[in-house]
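From the methods appendix. Each design record in this collection lists the tokenized structure first, followed by the designed amino acid sequence. Records were kept in a plain field format so they could be parsed without special tools. The example shown here is representative of the layout used throughout.

RECORD:
FOLD TOKENS (179 positions):
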């Protein structure tokens, strides 16, 4: 019996996107999310409302790469610092926090997340996509970033909290920027 070894970035399956971000105020960005019936959880609202979350006045494009935690060499999962450090070593960058709302708006056809699978407490929900972005606050109760989810037909832009000891599942999907 042969054991299949995970392919490591850049030799692994990825989803690449070019996303235009910037050029809108926070208010305009929120209006655009509302126009598309995109919901925010309390952590997403807290992150959006905080002065640490800034938006660019000028529009620009970023290339994103979506992959699984295991495809950065962590078949048993990893902490956020481990994941972010390894991504940097292989040429991937953290995304600006403002990418979250723009990626949500660009990814309106995200597949349904639950598909009959129940979510585990303190884990990323099945089918979610987390944006790897700079941590804006060391406070464990302050959101670390955004993730995207579609559940029961509704699109979400959600914030999440985690400490540096939390182990991400090897199947969790993360989006990084590529220069």
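DESIGN:
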């Amino acid at each position: 019996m042969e054991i299949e070894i995970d392919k490591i970035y850049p030799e692994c399956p990825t989803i690449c996107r070019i996303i235009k971000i910037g050029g809108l105020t926070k208010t305009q960005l929120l209006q655009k999310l509302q126009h598309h019936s995109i919901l925010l959880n309390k952590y997403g609202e807290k992150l959006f409302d905080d002065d640490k979350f800034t938006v660019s006045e000028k529009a620009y494009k970023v290339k994103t790469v979506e992959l699984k935690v295991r495809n950065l060499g962590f078949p048993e999962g990893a902490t956020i610092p481990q994941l972010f450090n390894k991504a940097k070593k292989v040429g991937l960058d953290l995304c600006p926090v403002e990418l979250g709302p723009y990626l949500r708006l660009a990814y309106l056809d995200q597949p349904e997340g639950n598909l009959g699978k129940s979510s585990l407490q303190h884990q990323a929900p099945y089918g979610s996509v987390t944006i790897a972005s700079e941590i804006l606050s060391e406070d464990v109760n302050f959101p670390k970033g955004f993730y995207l989810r579609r559940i029961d037909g509704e699109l979400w832009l959600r914030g999440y909290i985690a400490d540096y000891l939390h182990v991400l599942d090897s199947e969790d999907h993360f989006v990084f920027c590529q220069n």
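APPENDIX NOTE: Helices lie at 26-35, 42-49, 80-89, 99-106.
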